[in-house]
Specification:
Length: 170
């Protein structure tokens, strides 16, 4: 059985190696330093074409870290890798899911991979949250809770569910 690793599940440095990085000047308020120094960062994930920018910090390194985090999360939400019939939760998911309870902080490096795996399984189960939760060895409420940690992930699931005439997850 071949296991397809979601791009968001890659180590952040391996993920970064798949990206193009461009440094630019940040516009807007911030004084002369902001308009003279190239601290804004734009990252493009070459395999998917997804792009993010980070301009809020005065340091290009801090902006690079913020952009990398944003891009991994965007890839996790926008890219689906079907879980398949013989799906088993990943080692990371099993470590973070004990007795049906999922434990993850949205700022942790594992968070994009956790969201990606949850969305992949939900999609594979035809948006049936109970079936997806069972496949992930957690409760339905825990699955919805992890999706709520990233509002755009829950919004995506709700949009797809509404298109199929199913009720929204709250």
């Amino acid at each position: 059985m071949t296991i397809v690793l979601h791009p968001a599940a890659l180590d952040p440095q391996d993920f970064l190696s798949q990206c193009s990085l461009a440094r630019t000047r940040g516009g807007g308020p911030g004084g002369q330093r902001r308009n003279k120094v190239q601290t804004a960062v734009r990252l493009v994930h070459r395999p998917t074409g997804l792009t993010v920018t980070a301009t809020e910090r005065r340091s290009s390194e801090e902006n690079r870290k913020a952009a990398l985090s944003r891009l991994r999360l965007k890839v996790a939400i926008d890219v689906r890798c079907p879980a398949g019939q013989a799906y088993q939760p990943s080692e990371m998911w099993r470590r973070r899911c004990r007795r049906g309870t999922v434990s993850i902080n949205p700022r942790h490096d594992d968070f994009p991979a956790m969201i990606a795996e949850a969305l992949d399984v939900v999609a594979t189960c035809g948006l049936d949250m109970a079936a997806a939760a069972k496949a992930l060895n957690c409760t339905s409420s825990q699955l919805v809770r992890i999706l709520k940690l990233e509002p755009s992930a829950l919004a995506l699931v709700n949009q797809k569910r509404e298109q199929q005439g199913l009720h929204r997850m709250v």
